[in-house]
Amino acid sequence: MNGTTSFTAAVWEIYGGEVERIAGIYIDKNYTRLDLGTYRIPNPDDAALSRLSLKRIYPYDTPGNKIDFDIIAIAHIDLYRFSYDEPVEDRAEEWLRVSCEVELDGGFYSFCIKGIAVYNSRHNRRRGKLTDTLVPVIYADELEKNAEALLREYYPEALKTPQKIDVRLFAERMGLVIEDTHLSRSGTVFGGIIFNDSTVDYFDHEYNCYETFDANAGTILVDPEIYFLRTLGSWNNTVIHECVHWKRHKKVFDLEKLCAGGADRILCRVAEGTENEQERSQTGWMEWHANSIAPRVLMPRRTFQHMADKYIGAAEKPKLWLN
Hints:
This protein is of the alpha+beta class and 323 residues long. The protein folds into 2 domains: 7-123; 140-272 and 282-310, no CATH class. The chain has helices at residues 7-30, 143-154, 167-173, 226-229, 232-260, 282-298, 301-315, and strands at residues 46-61, 66-81, 88-104, 108-118, 177-180, 189-194, 198-204, 209-215, 219-222, 265-269. The strands form 3 sheets. Strands 1-2-3-4 form a 4-stranded antiparallel sheet. Strands 5-9-6-10 form a 4-stranded mixed sheet, covered by helices on one side. A two-stranded antiparallel sheet has the order 7-8. α2 packs across α6. The longest helix is centred in the C-terminal third of the chain and has 29 residues, at 232-260. The chain is elongated and about 90 Å long. The relative contact order is 0.13. The model has no long low-confidence stretch (mean pLDDT 87).
């Protein structure tokens, strides 16, 4: 991924004018209730928005293609006091929070402004945040909840009864299709997920060369050699890994396509060692999400704990010996 996409830049370029118009109406209707007084004009007789300066945008993840976001901006306001001698003018500033919603699906749709108010930093949300490239901000203590949310939506029976997850059924319920494909000559690419229809390179072992085929969005690619190089568990984990990418990172690629017209897939390679958290790239964070959530989906803590307690309890029962 080229890292040049910016949700903030895209939104402000398209909707900045509309946001400024609504902010102007808000100032016009509410200036008497806002603390806009200055030394020269303690109680303005009138006020009007001069311009709106963007500070930042906080996007938040929501189900489906929708994105909630808060626009934090500084309203530069002209103040007026009318008198018998000479009108007095001055200028004040007010920080505003403009709460919005937009749908991202190959472009921006259904934009709406849900509310506007004076900005208060205490109202910033911690959970559900997205970065400016729409990568989810997931904390370590949220990983289990993310896994349970996926199971609750696509495989709820696994949260009620301990059982093996049928990964093919899991992917099918998400509307995804699995294709066994040699993604590299040496087996260094375990799997991938196609976010937008594209042409995929694969290695043909029979002819010892790379060929191509067309893959639709929602296709999971898995190297069948995982069966032999690793284990069946690795194959299962790779499938769920790609399912996590589709669920949590599709908006990243939708934004990339909108802004730069590139990035239609993510391929997951075998990697040695760990990446420093401070130096982790956008792709690195997405891989950390998928690597951390996938095994928690395959072995949900709730049902595992239930079975573990059951077997531990049975093992601790005293044994009666007959003489």
